[in-house]
Amino acid sequence: MRKELTKLKEELIDAIREELGKSNTA
Question: Distance between CA 1 and CA 8 in Å, rounded?
């Protein structure tokens, strides 16, 4: 269970970084 949560968190962080990068370049 904890491993799944960590994986989810990493995916969320990646998505947030992507969104931040998009708004930075825009």
Answer: 11
pLDDT over 90 at 1, yes or no: no
Tell me, what's the pLDDT at 26? 63
Residue 25 pLDDT > 80, yes or no?
no
The total of other beta-carbon atoms located within 10 Å of residue 15's CB is 10
Rounded to whole angstroms, the Cα distance separating 2 from 8 reads: 10
Q: How many Cα neighbours within 13 Å face the side chain of 7?
A: 4
